[in-house]
Design a protein that fits this description.
The protein is an alpha+beta fold. The protein has helices at 63-78, 82-85, 92-119, 176-183, 192-204; strands spanning 5-10, 14-19, 24-39, 42-54, 125-131, 134-141, 146-153, 165-171. The strands form two sheets. It has a four-stranded antiparallel beta sheet. It has a four-stranded antiparallel beta sheet with strand order 5-6-7-8. Pfam families: Knl1_RWD_C.
């Protein structure tokens, strides 16, 4: 179930839905009834507009929350005109499902980032920094005589698409070739980011290379 929305208001003029702990609001403005069409046993209505608004305080919110918000609105903008894709009431459940699916995936990503920032030391992860829609992971291992930074570029497709990455080597000989070989064996999917970190730790940071 990906019902990530909460109905805040519904009347003849509009409906208001909240997502992600009330940080994203969707306002659907209704037009006149459509002759001969019904939705939920009531006359269907045309939809005049669907407007999204962010209520996240980016100055106070943690970087992971800001990233999640950016990816959600990246998805919203990628769909073009929501009113064109959702011109009447019977289309609204699909639109809510599509938004909920992305919100759910991005929310899990936020939880993954918080986990890595809290428990990263278990994986020889010194830092997990977020800048715009990139995550910079700084690994350091005395056992492997290595220190390097792995930067991953995230998008609203996460976690269904392979993540573009780059590597900056600080100490040792673990570079882009070695990291690419490891990442190629990590399939996209649930907890993709955590599995990437776990795989890098297990395959590159346990012993001298």
């Amino acid at each position: 179930s990906f019902t990530e929305w909460e109905l805040m208001e519904w009347n003849d003029q509009q409906a208001v839905f909240n997502f992600l702990y009330d940080s994203v609001t969707l306002t659907v403005v209704f037009g006149p009834p459509i002759d001969g069409e019904f939705f939920a046993a009531r006359p269907s209505r045309s939809i005049v507009s669907l407007d999204f608004e962010s209520f996240l305080d980016e100055e106070q919110a943690p970087p992971s929350s800001c990233l999640v918000q950016k990816l959600i609105f990246q998805f919203i903008e990628s769909r073009g005109s929501w009113q064109k894709n959702c011109p009447k009431l019977c289309c609204l459940p699909q639109a809510l499902f599509d938004i909920s699916l992305v919100v759910n995936r991005c929310k899990i990503l936020g939880e993954e980032l918080e986990f890595l920032q809290r428990w990263g030391a278990k994986f020889h992860l010194l830092e997990a920094n977020i800048k715009d829609t990139e995550v910079k992971l700084l690994f350091s291992s005395s056992a492997a005589l290595a220190k390097f930074e792995l930067t991953l570029a995230l998008s609203h497709d996460y976690p269904s698409a392979v993540l573009p990455f780059r590597v900056q080597t600080h100490i040792g000989n673990i570079g882009e070739k070695e990291v690419a070989a490891v990442l190629s064996r990590v399939p996209a999917g649930h907890h993709y980011l955590q599995r990437i970190v776990t795989s890098v730790h297990q395959n590159l940071l346990q012993a001298p290379r």
